[in-house]
Design goal:
It is a single chain. Helices cover about 55% and strands about 15% of the residues. Strands 1, 2, 4, 5, 6, 8 and 9 form a seven-stranded antiparallel sheet that branches. Helix 8 runs antiparallel to helix 9, helix 11 runs antiparallel to helix 12 and helix 12 runs antiparallel to helix 13. It is elongated, with a radius of gyration of 29 Å.
Length: about 325
């Protein structure tokens, strides 16, 4: 029997027993022969197309993935993230709602691309999901793990009360802060600046809530706070909010007045706000620290051009104004 054209669309709605009665092997059945049964009950079958590296995705991780879901006999996915350049991070156990997909992700590594066949009990059940997914449908998912972060420790820490957070060892807090910074940096590199900002701000809240046990711990927390302040300043520049960028840059300078990055961020913010004199002050101080830094020198050249254009416009405006006054007097 042909499985093309109109017949293939009819087969889509035939039960598996009916297909077997006619001796028909469906596309998913052919695909299943080359796949691995990862649970032992035949409910989730997997084929690794491109192997990944490192450890597998841990439980409760936050993952960045591309995926597409297909029903049998359909070339077009019923859902996909492939149109997104940078898919959002999803937390296992919360954002990944398909049971089979979550279990499948726990078998994958960073960079891995795999195909999965999910039987109904691991997908959309007996009823399916009308109008796109029929009842008792086995679905195919193609999944590419772009990156992941083990955020379980962060979640556990955030569930503590403020008093409990202050009693945990400093090393525990530092691990949480490092995860938050890595998470924020990952979002920043994917141009998800709002998400990056939220991670950095969460970390700042944890730092502000911590009561240092001694001067050594206080110094360590100030060093870490400086990193997040610099990240926030840069992120707000990307969000085109120079006032906020200047605020966090100045907070960084309160901790370390000699920090070149903080001076540079403040100079960038002032330039964006067209406060050329303050921009000159910040960037000149930064250049004194690093006279051959290409970013600083390039921004100083841009500042000089912007300031010259500003003065030229002011001069032209004054010239037109005075020439108008002379004509009035005559």
């Amino acid at each position: 029997m042909s499985t093309n054209g109109r017949t293939s669309r009819i087969l889509q709605f035939m039960a598996p027993d009916e297909r077997r009665q006619f001796g028909i092997e469906t596309p998913f059945q052919r695909l299943a022969w080359q796949m691995q049964d990862i649970l032992g009950d035949g409910g989730i079958l997997k084929e690794v197309v491109h192997a990944g590296e490192g450890p597998p995705v841990p439980m409760h991780a936050s993952v960045s993935i591309h995926f597409s879901g297909f029903i049998e006999y359909s070339d077009a996915p019923f859902e996909t993230t492939n149109h997104l350049r940078y898919p959002r991070m999803m937390k296992l156990g919360r954002d990944v709602t398909l049971y089979g997909l979550e279990l499948g992700l726990l078998t994958m590594k960073k960079g891995e691309f795999s195909r999965f066949l999910f039987k109904p009990k691991y997908a959309y059940g007996d009823l399916g999901c009308p109008p796109h997914i029929p009842p008792l449908a086995t679905v195919l998912y193609e999944v590419h793990v772009l990156d992941f972060l083990d955020s379980a420790k962060v979640d556990d820490f955030m569930d503590l009360t403020l008093e409990e957070q202050n009693t945990v060892p400093l090393s525990t807090l530092l691990n949480v802060l490092e995860t938050q910074r890595s998470f924020g940096n990952l979002c920043y590199n994917k141009k998800r600046y709002e998400d990056a900002r939220e991670r950095y701000k969460q970390a700042m809240t944890l730092l502000q809530n911590r009561e240092p046990m001694d001067d050594e711990e206080k110094q360590r927390l100030e060093e870490i706070k400086l990193l997040f302040l610099l990240n926030l300043s840069l992120t707000y520049l990307k969000l085109e909010k120079p006032q906020k960028a200047l605020y966090f840059g100045q907070k960084a300078l309160d901790i370390n007045p000699q920090n070149t990055k903080a001076l540079f961020r403040c100079g960038q913010a002032c330039l964006d706000m067209k406060d050329y004199e303050k921009a000159q002050d910040y960037l000149t101080l930064a250049q004194e620290k690093k006279p051959f830094d290409p970013d600083i020198n390039t921004l100083l050249k841009k500042l000089a051009k912007c300031y010259k254009d500003y003065l030229d416009k002011e001069r032209d405006m004054c010239t037109k104004m005075f020439s108008g006054l002379k004509r009035t007097e005559n």
